[in-house]
Design brief:
alpha/beta, 5-stranded parallel sheet
């Protein structure tokens, strides 16, 4: 009997795992469930499409479901949400978001790659129509359309995505403000690195508000805790991400203190036969030995490959 592998999530970690499984063993039956309409898209390039640096939207889709299915023999189900995992029976329940059809699919190995979702700061006005987060190609399209109809933008958060959005919105000619609660941009970095970046932002006309926070969003403006009021027609929330780990939690899989799925160096969770990769997991930092979350595509791709290797009997951890 061919081994059956179910992968939940079809972007960086999930699709890297699925493709490598088929490279290592053509006989493995791999089913991928992806809640969104796209798989394996270039999420790192989304700010640069918004800014017009990347002009061809088709180039954002690294692969298509049809292309991956034809090349690797993968069974890819987009617009399908996995709603439950039965680890005792070794099966998942999924629902088509278009037809409502409910499927029950058995597995020998399960790979969780649900990713993370942007944090929406719980403040007044956070649900106004000109407030956006950037998580997928649909979000990208909405921000790109909105950016071409306004003159001023406010980016909340000066992490990787926040600074990339600020750069690209400025590239479009918008007046851009960045609001960051910490006393520097790119919080995880040393100040020797972030100080020149702050200078570069200022030289390029970006207004940076450090040690401040958005207290409320209003139509046409944001109000800061410092009392400042910034006029803006576009607000981009880039205040961090949280793991999509509810499915794992409900299945009894161990989570860390911040809600990330706990895995070992072989990407195995606390439940035998269940693996997890990508933005939803916490891993051991090679420098400090502490448990850390690294929500970036590079680590997710490597983790997907490690999980595939282990499932196929290779110990490449």
């Amino acid at each position: 009997m061919a081994k059956k592998v179910v992968v939940v999530g079809g972007v960086a970690g999930g699709m890297s795992c699925a493709a490598r499984l088929k490279r290592l063993d053509q006989a493995v039956e791999v089913t991928v469930f992806e809640k969104g309409p796209d798989v394996s898209f270039a999420n790192c390039g989304m700010p640069y499409y918004i800014g017009g640096v990347i002009q061809d939207r088709a180039s954002m889709a690294v692969q298509t479901p049809a292309g991956l299915a034809a090349r690797y023999g993968l069974d890819i189900r987009t617009r399908h949400e996995v709603t439950a995992i039965d680890t005792a029976a070794k099966q998942v329940t999924a629902r088509s978001m278009e037809s409502g059809e409910v499927l029950t699919v058995p597995y020998d190995a399960l790979v969780l790659a649900p990713g993370a979702e942007p944090l929406r700061i719980p403040i007044s006005g956070a649900d106004l129509p000109h407030v956006h987060t950037l998580n997928n190609l649909e979000d990208m399209d909405r921000i790109a359309a909105a950016a071409r109809g306004v003159k001023k933008a406010c980016v909340v958060g000066a992490g990787f995505i926040g600074l990339e959005l600020a750069e690209n919105l400025r590239h479009l000619g918008l007046e851009v403000s960045v609001v960051e609660i910490l006393d520097q941009v790119l919080g995880p970095m040393d100040r020797e690195i972030t100080t020149p970046l702050l200078q570069e932002l200022t030289l390029n006309g970006v207004s940076v508000y450090l040690k401040d926070a958005v207290e409320a969003v209003e139509p046409g403006a944001v109000r800061l805790k410092s009392g400042a009021r910034l006029e803006t027609g576009l607000v981009c929330m880039c205040a961090g991400v949280k793991p999509r780990s509810g499915l794992a939690r409900d299945a009894g899989i161990a989570l860390g203190p911040r809600g990330h799925i706990v895995v070992n160096e072989r990407m195995e969770t606390s439940v035998p036969g269940v693996y997890a990769v990508g933005d939803a997991v916490e891993v051991r930092c090679a420098v400090s030995g502490d448990s850390v979350a690294v929500p970036l595509a590079g680590p997710a791709n490597r983790q997907g490959r490690v999980a595939a290797d282990v499932i196929c009997g290779r110990d490449s951890a």
